[in-house]
Structures are given as C-alpha cells and as structure tokens.
TrEMBL record:
GTP binds at residues 58-61, 86-87, 130-135, 174. This is Ribosome biogenesis GTPase A. It is found in: Cytoplasm. InterPro entries: G_CP_dom (IPR030378), GTP-bd (IPR006073), GTP-bd_ortho_bundle_sf (IPR023179), GTP-bd_ribosome_bgen (IPR019991), GTPase_MTG1 (IPR016478), P-loop_NTPase (IPR027417). It holds the Pfam family MMR_HSR1. GO terms for biological process: ribosome biogenesis; translation. It comes from Mesobacillus persicus. Essential protein that is required for a late step of 50S ribosomal subunit assembly. Has GTPase activity that is stimulated by interaction with the immature 50S ribosome subunit. Binds to the 23S rRNA. Required for the association of ribosomal proteins rplP and rpmA with the large subunit. Gene3D superfamilies: 1.10.1580.10, P-loop containing nucleotide triphosphate hydrolases. Residues 14-178 form the CP-type G domain. Interacts with ctc. Interacts with the immature 50S ribosome subunit. 2 molecules of rbgA bind to one 50S subunit.
Length: 291
C-alpha cells in the first residue's frame, strides 16, 4: 500500500506559511515525540530556510522517555534547540519562551540599539496534522481559543493568538508533503494518527506496528495481547490476538477487527508510552549513505 495524503487545504496552508514567514521572528516546529524524525516535514526546511527555530517534541508523555532523551541529544549535536513537551498537561512549556529569547537575543538587541521599542516575540507554529499545535496554543494562552480534536485536519486556517505580553503566536493547519520518499515514514505517520484514517488500510498499518513493537517492545506486546511468545509469523500473531479477544466470524478470525483494535490500543496508550523510531536507526542510515 502506498500512503499519500496531501489535500487542497494543505497546499493552501503551505502557501500561507510562506507568505507569513516575513512577519515572524521564530518558528516553533512541533513534531510528534514518538517519531521526531518522520514527523518533521521536509518542506519546512525549504520554506523557512534560516529563520531561527525551536523543535518541540510534543506528546512526550506518549513516547518512551529514554528514547526522547536520546532525540534531544541528537538535535543538540546538530545545533538545533529541541525541547520535550506535553501540551495537554502543560509540562515543559515555560522553556519555550526562554529558549526563543535566547535565540532572538541578538536580533532584539540590534533593534533596541536602533531605538525600536521592545515588542512581543512573533512566532509561527508549524507541524504535521494532529501533532498538537492548537492544544499548545491554548495551553500557552490559558484559555481554549483554538479548536482542537483527536483527528488530523482540525485547523483549517491561520489564527494569531496573544500569550501574555511576551509572545504572539500564529496557529497554522497541519501540513504533510506530497510524497513520502520512504514508505516507512507514511506508516509511522499513520500509526500515530497524522493521516486521515479513512484513506488508510488499517490491516497494513497494524502489521507494520506489530512487527515494530514485537521487535522493540516484545514484553509489552506479549502482556497486552496475552501471548507466550511474539510469533515470527504475522498471520499467526493476528490469529492469536484474534483468538484471545474472541474476534471471530464463524470459524474465521476477523482480521479487520484485530487491526482496528491494535491501532486503537496503541494510540490509546494501552501498551504504555512508545517510541516508533530511535536516533540510532537514522545514524545507521547516515553511515550507509555516506559510504
Ligand atoms: N497525550 C497528549 N495528547 C496531546 C498532546 N498535545 C495534543 N494532544 C492531543 O492531540 C490531539 C490533536 O491536537 P490538536 O491541537 O488539535 O492538533 P493540531 O496539531 O492542531 O492538529 P491539526 O489542526 O489537525 O493540524 C488532541 O486530541 C489533543 O488533546 C500532548 O502533549 N499529549
Ligand atoms: Mg490545529
């Protein structure tokens, strides 16, 4: 299955982000802490070029803490300011303004020297659908002012929101990109909920997720789905999960129901906090590419 989702409103959102770029001092690039690489939109680099940015690993509560710490180190080594945050609970948010101020210090000092009156930092929040951009804005603002929802594509247009006297934020619709070079990226985005479910084949997504988790988190998979061992064969795994949950249609296992349940439970944190990629996976790839 080839996954692709780039509806018209995203193409429009991309144009609007480009247009508004000159109005902002800094970009807050919101990524999903469970997939900090695959949830970075490669178009963002082209669009924002050298604008200062802070990468925010949101939904850190849903990701594997140790792996998130590895990711923060990974970004730091590449001179990118990155913070792990939980926008729903509001943890880690204070650091955002602190880091933004640090990155903009020189610019604001320059303006001050020219006699420009101090003003709020203007920031634009960009990121893939469902990453939590509007939730973060609401948290920072202190009131629910931007619409949120646990499905991709909730925000359809841009909106400026004031946060105290220090920050003005522009909320933007989530943007994906026209083609995933690596289909694995598509699968990871699908598992974590960045792609509209209606266009997905859930069986494929569940196969991908169970294979990954069976390797990286075997004990959690075994425990959740009552397995003695993680079967090598994926059909056997579906059969066993289906049997233990009683998902049968006549004598047949209802694979669709198994798939839908597996995905729902992963997203619903029934297997605990999970990371779907690690910096070491990428570093291996970088070494291979360079040789
Ligand atoms: N567990 C957890 N859930 C979060 C966090 N941030 C946001 N969410 C949830 O993620 C879902 C999506 O949040 P939104 O703020 O609507 O996401 P968005 O990036 O604005 O999405 P679009 O407007 O569709 O691009 C909602 O159900 C939020 O409650 C977080 O840090 N942790
Ligand atoms: Mg939104």
């Amino acid at each position: 299955m080839t996954i692709q989702w780039f509806p018209g409103h995203m193409a429009k959102a991309r144009r609007e982000v480009t247009e508004k770029l000159k109005l902002v001092d800094i970009i807050f690039e919101l990524v999903d802490a469970r997939i900090p690489h695959s949830s970075r939109n490669p178009m963002i680099d082209e669009i924002i070029q050298h604008k200062p940015r802070v990468v925010l690993l949101n939904k850190a509560d849903m990701a594997d803490k140790e792996i998130t710490a590895e990711w923060i180190r990974y970004f730091k080594e590449r001179d990118i300011t990155a913070l792990a945050i939980n926008s729903q609970a509001g943890t880690g948010l204070k650091q955002i303004v602190t880091e933004a101020k640090k990155l903009l210090n020189e610019k604001f000092e320059r303006l001050k020297a020219k006699g420009v009156k101090p003003r709020a930092i203007r920031a634009m929040i960009v990121g893939i659908p469902n990453a939590g951009k509007s939730t973060l804005i609401n948290r920072l603002h202190g009131k629910n002012i931007a619409k949120t929802g646990n499905m991709p594509g909730v925000t359809k247009s841009q909106q400026w929101i004031k946060v105290g006297n220090e920050l003005e934020l522009l909320d933007t619709p989530g943007i994906l990109w026209p083609k995933f070079e690596d289909q694995e990226v598509g699968y990871k985005l699908a598992v974590t909920g960045a792609i509209k479910d209606a266009i997905l084949n859930m069986d494929d997504i569940a196969v991908y997720a169970l294979r990954y988790l069976g390797t990286r988190y075997p004990s959690r998979v075994k425990e959740r789905f009552h397995l003695d061992e993680v079967p090598e064969d994926i059909v056997e795994m579906f059969d066993k999960i289906g049997l233990s949950r009683g998902f049968k249609q006549g004598n047949e296992i209802d694979y669709d129901k198994v798939a839908e349940t597996v995905i729902r439970e992963i997203r619903g944190e029934k297997l605990g906090p999970l990371s779907f990629e690690r910096p070491s996976d990428l570093e291996k790839l970088e070494i291979e590419l360079n040789n």
